[in-house]
Write a structure and sequence with these properties.
By secondary structure, this protein is mainly alpha-helical. It is built from 11 helices and no strands.
Length: 269
Amino acid sequence: MKSSPWKLAYYFYCALVLAFLLVPIAAIIPLSFSSGSFLTYPLPGLSFRWYEEVISGDKWMVALGRSLWIGVVATVLSLILGTLASLGLARQRAWWASLLKMIMLSPMIVPVILIAVAAYFFLAPLSLTSTYTGLVIMHTVIAVPFVVVPVLTALELLDPNLERAAAACGATPNITFWKVTLPSIVPAMGSGAVFAFAASFDDVVIALLLSGPDQRTLPREMFSGLRDSMTPALTAVATIMIVFSTALFLIMQANQRKVRRLASQTGGH
């Protein structure tokens, strides 16, 4: 079957969009293997010296450790808070439930710079700026919506007859939650956790305003490097982050496939 001209034009347009998005990213990766000291094409040679500098240097690895620690703590807190909020909102049909949903999802809509400025004026009187506590609190704030969206969707799609059947068999509400509800939303919680960690790990705006010398995360360290000295070490760090983000995306896709498979199995039964 021959493709119509409009379909070919559509494919060509999609290819242009993908190229526009991916080519700048792909251009960074070869520079990380440059043997030179400047970001130039063509490459003077190939070398792993910048990866060795990143891995052996305390600056980058300490910043990476901070980002991972803050990201894990913020993810755990956002997973707990977001799941509890979703459980409460899924069963509410009052007008204020929609208002609460909008408020909880606002960090995804409001520009990050506004959130960072508001956080600074809120945390400064509490002496929580330049502290890990302040960073964790704000990273949790921006991460919670990424948990609420998939978990709330999973709860709304969950067949209520499952809980009724469990209650009819004599299960208490606690047993029903642990044996029926929670296993059904675990894949959605996993997807939310991946998104929440990515939101925390990639943040630079909040870190610039709230972190001190002892809380310099990896994105903030990269931003400082762009201002001070642009070397291929930055592209090596960027390549590592690209690989890491791609791995998170693949994990998210695997979780989403699991959610769809469980939903189809539940619907079939």
